[in-house]
Structures are given as structure tokens and as C-alpha cells.
Amino acid sequence: MSELRTEEFIVNMGPHHPSTHGVCRLMLTMDGEKVVNIVPVIGYLHRSMEKMCENRTYAQCIPLSDRFEYVTAMSCNQVFSMAAERLAGIEVPERAEYLRVIMLELNRIASHLIFYGVTAMDLGALTPFLYGLREREAIIDLFEMTCGQRLTYNYIRIGGVSRDIPPQFVPQCRQTVKTIGDKLSDYEGLLNENPIWLERTKEIGYLSPGLAIAYGVSGPVARASGIDYDIRRDDPYSVYDRFDFNIPVRTGGDCYDRYLLRLDEIKESLKIISQALDGLPDGPVMAKVSPNFKPPAGEVYARVENSRGEMGVYMQADGSKKPVRVKMRGGSFNQLQALPAFGTGVLIADIVAIFATLDIIMPEVDR
User: Fold this and answer.
1) C-beta of residue 297 within 8 angstroms of C-beta of residue 281
2) Beta strands 325-329 and 309-317: pairing type?
């Protein structure tokens, strides 16, 4: 009886595969349906954003920053503005800081709702996608009434925010917070005990805490692996230290816990928004900053807790009206870098689930 022999072969997943959430290409070495090696191939989206910032004034860079991670664009505006403000010693008015927190947390919820719907759709469930987009639409309506935009906002500016909220914002925001809080039980009821969902996510794509730390993984992916770290609490910025909220942590490290953790985070974001609305002070929303201001020579690194992990901007100034060096950090890059280390030995269908629960967005990778 002759020995049964198999031959490995290469499968290209992407760069336009719907489950890669953008132009990411995964070169999968397969043994039958089993994945034995993964090589992420990036660069299809590269736009030289960092170099473009070095050829514009600080204020002109804010609209560019929106495109760095467009699903949570408020965070992009925030981190770039923070870096410039620290270089120039600009003090942001208190009302503007509260408005920033409200917008950041609304945007975090909107991002997690996209994650909820798209991840379920990747695994064959359409209804969660419709639910998630329904509530996200209410958040986008709030952004539109505030700054006129629905995706790339250019709202958080160096020194504050571009404009104050309209009178109807607060009551409509409170209603949106209540609606999302009420609907979360529907989200959980759709998937938490669904046998197909459990089969596709539980004990699939285990990421150990040690491996997560070694690859610089941050955000919800790291916290789902038991790493209790969140920049909002551990290196507070803006006025986050004034609010009472918990940092959800789970220890399973698999696709299922990465999904659950984001639902946990939505609940905490709702708490932060409610507290910020209750304590919203009066006053100006923008410091006096010239559009062509020139911070003194120096360097700074600012970071925020984005929906996909640590988002940072390293900035160098030489005393002119343009930054001499800008370097951006996005959490998605590290998550994608770690994928080959823990995503092998599974079936090709499991790669779809693993990639989806990492919540990678390619502009953060191809800057």
C-alpha cells in the first residue's frame, strides 16, 4: 500500500476579497483546507500621508488625518491636534474637551457597531449587519448636525473644535444613548448563543497574552487576551480622568471573546457620554490659534485609545509653520503583523473569522 502524500499550494486571499475589509492580500500556504503559513502583502493603499503632512501647515493636516482611519476619524483629528497642542503649549477650553470626549466615544460606538455587523456578515449572518447600521445611522446623524459631515469630520481642530453643538444635539444624543443601550440585548440575543456563531468563533484564533505583547498588539484585541491596559485610564488625556468607567477585559483570547469585548466597550462608552453630557460646561470651544501658527522647535509623541488600539502621532517641529516630521501609528498594523504567528493550523474558513475579529482597517496599515 503506497503512502498518501499531499502537496502544499498557495492561495491568494485578496487584495479585493470582501472579508479582508480593504486592499489586504494574504498569501496562504495550504495543505488541503488547512493553513500552514500566512504572508500578509500590503502597500496597495499607500498614499504617503505622513509626507503630505510635512508639506502642509499644521491646520491643513487635520483634513488629511481624517483619512488615516476613516471609520473612527474623530480619533485621528484628536491625536494630531494633541501633538500640535503639546508642541505649542496650547490650552484647550474645558467645553471643547468635553465635546471632544463625547464625539470620540460616539465614534468608538459607531466603529464597534460596524465591527458587529460586518463580522457577523463575514460568517454568513446578515441580520446583525442591518441592526448595527441602524443604530450607527443615529450617531452619524449627530455628527452631521454638528459639523456637516458623515464620515471624515474635520471637527476636532488644533485648540478645540470647529464649532459648538446645536441646541438639539444634547436631547437627541441622550435619546441615541438610550436607544443603543436598549438594543444591546437584541445584539446579544442574535449571536451570543447561536450554535453556528459559537462553532465559528469559540476557541478559534487564540492569541496568547505573551504573543500579543511581543507584537505590540493593543486595544480590544489585547484586552480580549487578558491584557488590562487602556490609554484612557493608564495615560489619561483630555478629561477622561473625570469620568467613572470600567475597562472591560476578557481572558479567552479567541474570536468569541474579541467579539464580546467590543459589546462590553459599547456599554462603557455609553456611560462616558452620559456623564459628559451631564457635566458639559459653558464657555468657548476654541482657543485663540492662528491658522499659520509656528510652534517652537521640538518633538512630541501623542497617543489616544482608538477603537482599534493605540493610535499615535510622533511630530517634530523646527519653528516653521509646517511640521518637519510626522509619523503615525495605528493599531491595525500590529494586529496584522501578529496574524502569521497565531493564525496558522486552522481551516481557511477560520481565517475569515480571525481576520474579522482583529478589526483591521487598511489605511492604518498603508499610510
Assistant:
1) no
2) antiparallel
Number of domains the chain is built from: 1
pLDDT score recorded for residue 292: 85
Identify residue 11 by its one-letter amino acid code: V
Cα–Cα distance, 180 to 202 (Å, whole number): 26
Residue 27 included in any domain: no
List the grid coordinates of 286. 476654541
Euclidean distance between CA atoms 356 and 94, whole angstroms: 38
User: Is 292 a member of any domain?
Assistant: yes
**What average pLDDT does this structure show over 227-244?**
97
Stretch 285-296: mean pLDDT: 92
Residues 44/25, Cβ–Cβ less than 8 Å: yes
Q: Is residue 5 part of a domain?
A: no
CATH of the domain at 303: 1.10.645.10
pTM score, two decimals?
Answer: 0.96
CA-CA-CA-CA dihedral for 167, 63, 279, 238, to nearest 10:
-170
Element spanning 315, H or E = strand 309-317
pLDDT for 20: 84
* Helices marked H in 158-194: 169-191
Cα 301 to Cα 317: distance, rounded to the nearest angstrom: 12
pLDDT at 37 over 60: yes
Question: How far apart (Å, rounded) are the C-alpha atoms in residues 240 and 278?
Answer: 14
Range of the domain at 318: 47-342
Q: Which residue has the cell 486552522?
A: 346
The answer to the question of residue 308 being in a domain is yes
Nearest to 334 by CA among 202, 200, 166, 219: 219
DSSP code per residue over 69-125: SGGGHHHHHHHHHHHHHHHHTPPPPHHHHHHHHHHHHHHHHHHHHHHHHHHHHHTT-
Burial of 164 (0-12, 13-18, 19+ CB in 10 A): middle
CA angle centred on 267, ends 266 and 270, rounded to 5°? 85
